[in-house]
Amino acid sequence: MQDVCLLPPKVGLEFYHTTRNALVLYEAIIPVKLQKQLDSINQAAVLIHNDCLYLSQEILGLAFEYRPYFPSSLKEHAVFVDLAPKFQLMAEEVLQRQIQLVVHNLKQAIDGADGFQNTHQIKQFESAKFCIDQVAFIIEKVHIVWEPLLLPSVYENSMAMIFEFVFSRIAKEILTLDDMAAEETLQLQRLIHLLFEHLSSLLEPLLAVDHFRKSQEAQKERDNFILSIWKLRKLAELLDMPLRSIIAAWESGELADCNFTSSEVEDFIRAIFTDSPLRKECLFRIENYAVQKE
């Protein structure tokens, strides 16, 4: 672009078109040429994301930086700003594809736990434990690939989305169990504790971040992330909590603050506690509390 400023207008116009065409070619060729890398979790895909993000920012400044020095006949024709959104979109698509690939792998790992059923049986517990280990391994691998290369804000928000998926999915699986033996509840609690133990070194830096970038979307991702942690941790507590304590936690609003719904609490109580006058009373209190709230 510096050459454009020094050359005769006609030649400068050719240089301008060459610069613009180079950017257009990059946008068209990279997704095709590097499709294999973009369809797997690796550093090459992250670098492509970074390149597109960088170009989207640099393109916005090209015309402003050099326009004052362009020949007058070229000033009206030199336009780059229309290309910036394309590279911004390309960067976002590459990143979303990476996140989708990670979520797909995590979904497969969690599916292997078979809904975390019958974990009081040794074989089923070992199978579920293996799935928890797999989940931790996948996330650790993603951290190794992403953390050194992505911008801190992008890394934080992307990891928050992944953690939110894992915690919400596991909580949902456990909360849909329709009958749990006493030993089973303790094993499920053990599995949740194991998951947090595996992931603590990755979670702590994210939870320490108090500037989760100021956009509304980023704040929403952080809120969902935090709620998913609270819910799964609280679920681990509920698994060996007396019935009266569960009701007290619900009526105090503690469970609602952790994103539990009334139907989830009711189903959980039915799954763990046998039918009794106390259970009927507690279920009635939950239903009545929900009606009063409406």
Could you please describe the fold and organization of this structure?
The termini are far apart. The longest helix is centred in the N-terminal third of the chain and has 28 residues. The protein is built from 14 helices and no strands. The chain is elongated. The model has no long low-confidence stretch (mean pLDDT 88). The protein is mainly α. Helix 6 packs parallel to helix 8. Helices cover 78% and strands 0% of the residues. It folds into 3 domains: 87 residues; 129 residues, no CATH class; 54 residues, no CATH class. It holds the Pfam family ZW10_C. One of its GO terms (cellular component) is RZZ complex. It comes from Handroanthus impetiginosus.
The helix/strand series, from N terminus to C terminus, equals: HHHHHHHHHHHHHH
Label the structural class. Answer: mainly alpha
Based on CA atoms alone, the radius of gyration comes out at 27 Å
Number of helices: 14
Amino- and carboxy-terminal Cα gap: 64 Å
Low-confidence stretches: none
Mean pLDDT: 88
Largest sheet: none
Which geometry do the CA atoms define? Answer: elongated
Domain ZW10 C-terminal helical: 130-286
InterPro entries: Zw10/DSL1_C_sf, ZW10_C, ZW10_C_2
Domain Centromere/kinetochore protein zw10 C-terminal: 3-106
Pfam families: ZW10_C, ZW10_C2
